[in-house]
Amino acid sequence: MQLDLRVDRSSPVPLYFQLSQQLEAAIEHGALTPGSLLGNEIELAARLGLSRPTVRQAIQSLVDKGLLVRRRGVGTQVVHSQVKRPLELSSLYDDLEAAGQRPATSVLVNTVVPATAGVAAALGVPEGDDVQRIERLRLAHGEPMAYLCNHLPSGLLDLDTAELEATGLYRMMRSAGITLHSARQSIGARAATAAEAERLTEAEGAPLLTMQRTTFDDTGRAVEFGDHIYRPSRYSFEFQLLVRP
Amino acid sequence: MQLDLRVDRSSPVPLYFQLSQQLEAAIEHGALTPGSLLGNEIELAARLGLSRPTVRQAIQSLVDKGLLVRRRGVGTQVVHSQVKRPLELSSLYDDLEAAGQRPATSVLVNTVVPATAGVAAALGVPEGDDVQRIERLRLAHGEPMAYLCNHLPSGLLDLDTAELEATGLYRMMRSAGITLHSARQSIGARAATAAEAERLTEAEGAPLLTMQRTTFDDTGRAVEFGDHIYRPSRYSFEFQLLVRP
DNA sequence: TCAATGCGTATGTCCGGACAATCGGACTAC
DNA sequence: GTAGTCCGATTGTCCGGACATACGCATTGA
To answer: Considering the entire predicted model, what is its pTM?
Structure first.
């Protein structure tokens, strides 16, 4: 059966985007089965009344997402694998919500402090400058799951404690008009100190998963530096990697 | 000063690729300073004797890498940040070699075994089928750094022990004509068992960093399943994330 | 039988042009 | 003085076509 693809030329949504979304949806719910050929671009373009570059742009975006594979002389195939989503710059809050965990946050500290050497270096501000410091405890099912310590340049964002508990930090930054661009991340492990153990209801010396992250906006400014620890029995980092061809 | 950009039309290397490489090199060694405008596409195309789509394709590839930011009505800017490389599907061996660590590998086990339930599920083969099992110890500076246990579908690759010690598994797969496409990865932490502790010269109960990974080729076949443990004092996962715009 | 050749097909690269959407600043009107 | 408007600049989208290149398969030849 032929796939029912249509584009709406009166819509402000770009044509290539309309097409790529429809193709992605078709792959998602199985109308396009893994391994099947997509049919050649020329014919597809003719069928939709689009030009070939537009169709190629749509297909290319799905190739970049890892959903399709092109082979010269052969055609474009749906990749069959458990590929769900590539690694994205997401927040713990979003991750949990996507997993249907209904996360709860309790803000322990929300204040302005002078930047220590480490924080200053990460954020690219002079040592001793005012920075916003927040400490949060993330709970899932009433159990502590992670302890999050973040620093932000002062004045970047109005960090209302109540809002911080109701939503995530990243969501607040985005809705404040900050366009996140990239992040440098480091994941490790170490033994819990006595203080950390108590906060997370673990034993002293228990293994902890650690993550440090510096996030940049599209002007290259550091907008956030986070130092997080997770209970490995409750959380692990799951993600998908794509090979850069 | 104007940037010295040139393309060689007699070269088999695509023009857009030549251009993007030159731009990337210019950014790398500072000829294009962060925050500077790149000059508009039309003029750049005219200067190089290229069409605008070609120039756009070159620029787009650098935007995808996170090196440039385009702003409608403004121009294309070099992003100024510590962005070096986005997350790639790389092997521990490559990582270490890039860091100048001269890694050493000792192959502990290289044999064929029937697949356990877990391995079978990860590789998508029937339980009990023959699979290749390799266990390796990775050393840096003479110290054990990681214990790597991998399973591969039987017959996929000729795994010579000597070659395995001289190079990495991924490199062997690539040179065998397998085109890696994506991988699903999970990073966690836990306490060392007595056996693990001994292999890595740690104490029993010491925190360990763990990673499981299933790698797929471009046909969607699982080609490798790895279960690795790292000494957190010697290794952590460092990477860069880009926001999907 | 098996290897080399040729051919059809599909994607890869490239061109030149057109118009739309958005940003930032200058100008104008109140 | 301030807010709104216009305008130039620049990227975003889209078109239609042309030729190159690689893969798979059938045909041909030794």
So the answer is: 0.84
Task: Report the mean per-residue pLDDT for chain A.
Answer: 86
Q: Which CATH number fits domain B15-78: 1.10.10.10, 1.10.760.10, 3.40.50.150, 3.40.50.2300?
A: 1.10.10.10
CB contact under 8 A, B240 and A182: yes
The CA distance from A196 to A189, in Å, is: 13
CATH 1.10.10.10 domain locations along chain B: 15-78
Residue showing tokens 């986005």: B86
Topology of B83-238 in CATH? Chorismate lyase (3.40.1410)
Predicted confidence (pLDDT) per residue in B12-63, tens digit: 899 999 999 999 999 888 888 888 888 889 999 999 999 999 999 999 999 9
CA distance A239 to chain B (A): 5
Record: contact B189-A184, CB cut-off 8 A: no
Q: Which residue is nearest to nucleotide C23 (CA to C1')?
A: B73
Using one digit for the tens of pLDDT, what is the confidence trace for A20-36? 999 999 988 888 888 88
